[in-house]
Amino acid sequence: xxxxxxxxxxxxxxxxxxxxxxxxxxxxxxxxxxxxxxxxxxxxxxxxxxxxxxxxxxxxxxxxxxxxxxxxxxxxxxxxxxxxxxxxx
Length: 89
Known about the structure:
About 0% of the residues lie in helices and about 45% in strands. The protein has one domain. It has about 90 residues and is mainly beta.
């Protein structure tokens, strides 16, 4: 729960949705409903599978794109979290 809202992944519809408990309403907030790999204001996901809440953002496990996305709830924009592999040496 973040800001009185419950965010969840609608995996097979390729969307992130939000539940407003006090209004008994659910809305799509991120994703077009079609699989893809896009950032920005009209992001696309390919079976997002999990969420973690941060400070006014969501971290989204975009399963079949093998990436972690960051959704900024203020700007409603999505970016890919840059990751570095560990140096084994």
